[in-house]
Task: inverse folding
C-alpha cells in the first residue's frame, strides 16, 4: 500500500511538474509572439512586464536598462514600470543595480527590510518581497527585470525565480535590438537635420560672385564637417561700393554654423547702417557680445570696396592678415583693426584705406588654409600660400581659389581636413 501511495505521489508530482512546464512554455510562447511584432522599446518592455506580472502573480514590475557605453556603469538609461495594483509606484533602488552589476544572477528577497545584504537601504514601506533578475546580452548586463510583492500575501518561490530568469533571458536580446533600432532611427533623424542645416548654411553663402566693373571677385568655403563655422559674404551697399568679408567662428559643426548665421545677419544689417568699416565692426561686436556665450568669438576681415575710387577701407578683427599683391614681389598684409569680435562689449576698432591698383590682388583666407597639415604634421603655412599665389599670379579670381584649394589638398595628402577652408580673392583687372 505504501509503495502504491508513493507511486501515486510521484505521478502527481510529475503531472504537476509537466503542468508547470506547459504553462511556462505557454507564457514564453505568448511573450515571444507579443514582443516579436513590435519595434517600439517602450511597448516591448511594457509587454514583458505585463506578462511577467501575470506569470509570477506579482503586484508591480519594472525594467531598468543601463548604459553600457557610459563612463558611469550605474547610470540608468531607460526605466519602464507597470503596476497591477493601486499601490504607488515603487522606486527601483540603485543598490539593486549595483548588486546586479557585481553578481549578474537572480536575486530573491523575501523580506527587504530585514535583509542584511541591503542594510541601510530605505525601502518603500509597502514592499513586502521582491524578485530581481539580470537581462544579459553577450555576458554583459544590459538591464534588470524586477517584480514586487506576490499577490495574496504569499512570497516568491524558487519556481518564480526560475521562470522570471527565463523570461529575462529570452527577452533581453529583443529589448537590446529595439533599443539599438531606436538609436539608429534617432541618429538617422539627426543626420537628416544636419543635412538640412548644411543646405541652409550653403544657401546663406553667396551663390555667385558679384559683378563689379573693373574687378574680378570669387569666394569659396569647404567645411571640415557637413556644416562649418567659416563665413564669407559680398554685401552691396550702393552703386559703387560693396562690402567684402570673411569670418571664422570658434568651434566646429552645428554650434559654429548657428553662430555663423548670427554673424552674417548682424553684419548685413550693420553694413547698411554704417559709413565705415570700423563703425560696422564696433556695432556688430557690441551686438554679438550681447547675444553670444563668453567662450565663443569670431575673427573677421571686413572691407568696403569702392570701385569708383579704386579703394578698400578695411578693419581686421583678429583675423589672419590677408595678402595684398601689388607690383612688388613681396605682398603687403592687411592687419589694421583690433581684437576678435564678441569678447569685449566696446572696442575702438581702427581702419585703414588702401588704393587698389591695376592688376592688384587681395587674398583673404581662413586658418583652415595655412593650418592644414600633412601626415607628418607639417603645416601648409603662409609661405606655401604666398608661393602658390605667385605661381598663378595672372589667373582669374575663381581659378586662383581653385589653385590654392588644390595646393592645400595636395599638401594634406591622406590627412583628414581638420578645419574649414575658406577663401576670397579680389583682383582689379589690368588697364
Result:
Amino acid at each position: 500500500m505504501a509503495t502504491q501511495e508513493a507511486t501515486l505521489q510521484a505521478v502527481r508530482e510529475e503531472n504537476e511538474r509537466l503542468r508547470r512546464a506547459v504553462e511556462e512554455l505557454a507564457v514564453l510562447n505568448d511573450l515571444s509572439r507579443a514582443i516579436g511584432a513590435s519595434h517600439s522599446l517602450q511597448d516591448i518592455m511594457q509587454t514583458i512586464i505585463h506578462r511577467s506580472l501575470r506569470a509570477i502573480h506579482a503586484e508591480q514590475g519594472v525594467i531598468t536598462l543601463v548604459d553600457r557605453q557610459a563612463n558611469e556603469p550605474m547610470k540608468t538609461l531607460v526605466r519602464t514600470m507597470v503596476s497591477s495594483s493601486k499601490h504607488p509606484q515603487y522606486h527601483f533602488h540603485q543598490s539593486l543595480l549595483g548588486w546586479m552589476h557585481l553578481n549578474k544572477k537572480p536575486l530573491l528577497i523575501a523580506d527587504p527590510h530585514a535583509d542584511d545584504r541591503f542594510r541601510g537601504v530605505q525601502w518603500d514601506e509597502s514592499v513586502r518581497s521582491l524578485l530581481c533578475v539580470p537581462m544579459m546580452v553577450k555576458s554583459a548586463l544590459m538591464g534588470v527585470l524586477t517584480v514586487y510583492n506576490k499577490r495574496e500575501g504569499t512570497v516568491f518561490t524558487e519556481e518564480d525565480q526560475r521562470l522570471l530568469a527565463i523570461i529575462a533571458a529570452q527577452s533581453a536580446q529583443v529589448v537590446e535590438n529595439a533599443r539599438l533600432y531606436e538609436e539608429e532611427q534617432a541618429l538617422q533623424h539627426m543626420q537628416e537635420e544636419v543635412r538640412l542645416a548644411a543646405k541652409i548654411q550653403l544657401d546663406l553663402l553667396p551663390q555667385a560672385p558679384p559683378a563689379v566693373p573693373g574687378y574680378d571677385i570669387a569666394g569659396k568655403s569647404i567645411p571640415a564637417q557637413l556644416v562649418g563655422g567659416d563665413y564669407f559674404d559680398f554685401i552691396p551697399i550702393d552703386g559703387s561700393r560693396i562690402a567684402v568679408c570673411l569670418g571664422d567662428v570658434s568651434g566646429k559643426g552645428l554650434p559654429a554654423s548657428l553662430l555663423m548665421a548670427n554673424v552674417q545677419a548682424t553684419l548685413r544689417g550693420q553694413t547698411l547702417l554704417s559709413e565705415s568699416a570700423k563703425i560696422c565692426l564696433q556695432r556688430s561686436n557690441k551686438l554679438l557680445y550681447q547675444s553670444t556665450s563668453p567662450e565663443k568669438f569670431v575673427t573677421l576681415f571686413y572691407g568696403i570696396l569702392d570701385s569708383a575710387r579704386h579703394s578698400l577701407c578695411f578693419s581686421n578683427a583678429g583675423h589672419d592678415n590677408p595678402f595684398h599683391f601689388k607690383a612688388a614681389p613681396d605682398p603687403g598684409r592687411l592687419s589694421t583693426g583690433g581684437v576678435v569680435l564678441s569678447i569685449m562689449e566696446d572696442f575702438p576698432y581702427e581702419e585703414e584705406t588702401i588704393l587698389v591698383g591695376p592688376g592688384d590682388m587681395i587674398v583673404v583666407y581662413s586658418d583652415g588654409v595655412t593650418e592644414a597639415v600633412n601626415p607628418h604634421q607639417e603645416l601648409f603655412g603662409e609661405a606655401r600660400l604666398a608661393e602658390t599665389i605667385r605661381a598663378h599670379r595672372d589667373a582669374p579670381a575663381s581659378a586662383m581659389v581653385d589653385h590654392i584649394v588644390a595646393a592645400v589638398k595636395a599638401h594634406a595628402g591622406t590627412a583628414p581636413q581638420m578645419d574649414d577652408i575658406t577663401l576670397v580673392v579680389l583682383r582689379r583687372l589690368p588697364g
In short: The first helix runs from residue 2 to 36.
